[in-house]
Amino acid sequence: MSAQQTHIAQLRICLAQINTTAGDISGNQQHIISAVEQAQKDRADLIVFPELTISGYGCGDWLLHDYFIEDCLSAVNEIVPKCSDLVAVIGLPRTAPVGEDGQPRCYNSAAVIQNGQLLGFYDKQALPNYLIFDEVRHFVVGQGDGVFSLTINNQDIALGVSICEDLWHEARAVKQQAEMGADLLINLGASPYALGKPERRHQQFAQTARELNKPLVYVNAIGGQDELVFDGHSGLVHGDNSEQLPGFQEAIKSHTLNQLAGRSVDKNPLADLYAALRLSLKDYVHKNGFNEVILGLSGGIDSALVATLAADALGADKVYTLLLPSKYSSDHSVDDAQQLANNLGIQSEIVPIKTAHDVFEKQLTPHFKDYHHGLTDENLQARIRGLLLMAFSNNHNKLVLATSNKSESAVGYSTLYGDMVGGFAPIIDVYKTDVYALCRYRNQQNPVIPENIISKPPSAELRPDQKDSDSLPDYDVLDTILTAYIEQRQSPQAIATILEIDQAVVKDVINKVNRAEYKRRQGAIGSSVSGMKLGADRRMPLTFNYKKPTA
Asked: Fewest beta carbons within 10 Å, which of 154, 277, 350, 520?
């Protein structure tokens, strides 16, 4: 190993995986300064922060407001003198020249600071414009090479700085940095979580580091921002050795490359998914100024999972539930809901809807000849429940959690202004089969969800002896069809052939998905965890009448 390589391997590098809040420039600034002070106490030579640390990722069209961008740069300038004994790399948006259309734009940048001096910026070159990403709307492509020549501990070193997507796929900017002689590659990321993505990300980065024969540092954002949740899992890669910070929690930790060991990245997908949902819920509630939540507890598996997530994320004393039985609710549903509330230690109150239901029934029956047939009466019950939840929310300042899952949302098996009521929908991107799996996983940690909730046939209980299977295929079949149609974009004919399912069943499911777009457009936002979230990643028109020609 050369003297230069030995020096690089001995650098003390601090990964600052911190949870920022979009738009909270002053709060994020103080968080950064605190991390810098911690790194200095730990005698770090270099500290690296995530992408857009100053502004937070997910600011939307605030990035088109010049004064917002100027405040971000001002905040960085105030941080610069705090970095007196180390190198700091910090993400921020900064002003770019006005485009040909006359509209303001900005760069997605990384500021490089050393010994109290701002050395310069690197501007992101690969701007993602797919699925949930829309960076082309707000940013312009950077042009610099991103190589910074520094002197650390009396030794010259060249840092290659890149931002998130620059390191994915062809990674042209990073390859150029390696060719220019960068000794250490640094990547600032805001890579949202999706099921299985942390493993793919680490494998991609490890492969790039090996191919370029350069040590790599990557720091990913952590925390929830509206629908997005960032999982962290920041790390270092040096040859065949690597180190990762824990996922779904803040961490500020220093390492040297020569201390890394060969590690396999083994993760439990269900543990990661549960952690992602819990963090997303916690941050959405707290970052939007709420302390407590309320939800309807039906005795079914969806509300059981949401209540458990809320208790784990916020604390049992911050979760309030209403049991809203109708005349069709079974005794065991009320008992199951009450047992769950007792197991979790959350507050609950029984508010029967029969009185209100009878009033509406008496008022509407003279006007509807077929009132007791079809969906009118079923939806009315769901809307009475929604009305009561919103009344409690208004009176007690608690955020309502909607409990719909992805399977039901996809096919419209939900009621507008009824069970769709809420400010946040934690499991809206989780298929029903995964809801069951998550409940079983959670019970392995501590059995709080009654077994009867998990084992009984799912039912909306809005008419006598109702079962979900009356209207839908079994959920293992339904979710297989939905995954093929939504995530894989397969045609109905291909799905029926590949999965060996009756084509009429497949077409019925797909027709339900297409017809329910208007409902989903009006529903509460919720955690994006699947990589193809309805409405966020999969954007469809409401008015559309395509019919595939038949041969």
From this structure: 154
* 395 and 461 in a common domain: yes
CB atoms within 10 A of CB 491: 13
Is the predicted pLDDT of residue 262 greater than 80, yes or no?
Answer: no
Three-state DSSP class for residue 535: coil
Q: Residue 58: name the closest of 19, 102, 90 by CA.
A: 19
- CA gap 39, 15 in Å, rounded: 9
**Integer Rg of the chain from CA:** 26
| Among candidate residues 83, 70, 73, 6, the one with its CA nearest the CA of residue 40 | 83
How far apart are alpha carbons 496 and 510 in whole angstroms? 11
The helix/strand/coil state of 542 is coil
pLDDT of residue 87: 94
Quick check: is 164 catalytic? yes
Is residue 472 in some structural domain?
no
CA 353 to chain centre: 35
pTM for the model stands at 0.92
Catalytic residue among 59, 106, 124, 318: 124
Q: On the CB side of 57, how many CA atoms lie within 13 Å of its CA?
A: 31
Question: DSSP state, 383?
Answer: H
Q: Is 247 in the same domain as 370?
A: no
Give the tens place of pLDDT for each residue, 190-234.
999 999 899 999 988 998 999 999 999 999 999 999 999 999 999
**What is the per-residue pLDDT for 375?**
81
- pLDDT classification of 551: cutoffs 50, 70, 90: very low
216-220 and 235-238 as β-strands: parallel, antiparallel, unpaired?
antiparallel
Catalytic one among 59, 106, 164, 439? 164
Q: Report which of 362, 376, 340 is spatially closest to residue 451, judged by C-alpha positions.
A: 340
152 and 297 share one domain: no
124 is a catalytic site residue: yes
Instruction: Identify the active-site residue in 14, 51, 135, 432.
Output: 51
Q: Are residues 314 and 379 in the same domain?
A: yes
What SS3 state is found at 488? coil
Residues 459, 437: Cα–Cα separation, whole Å: 18
Give the pair of three-digit tokens for residue 459: 């039912």
What is residue 466's predicted lDDT score, i.e. its pLDDT?
60
Residues 217 and 286 in one domain: no
**What's the confidence (pLDDT) of residue 266?**
64
485 secondary structure, DSSP code = I
The 10 Å CB-count burial string (b at 16+, else e) for 106-138 is bbbbbbbbbeeebbebbbbbbbbeebbeebeeb
What single DSSP character describes residue 484? Answer: I
Cβ(159)–Cβ(495) under 8 Å?
Answer: no
Tokens of 486: 């939504």
Residue 83: which residues within 8 A CB-CB, separation 6 or more?
A: 36, 47, 113, 114, 115, 116
Q: Which residue range(s) make up the domain with 317?
A: 274-466
> How far is Cα 478 from Cα 471, in angstroms, rounded to an integer?
11
Residue with more model confidence, 64 or 189: 189
β-bridge mates for residue 319, sequence order: 293
Does the pLDDT value for residue 10 go beyond 50? yes
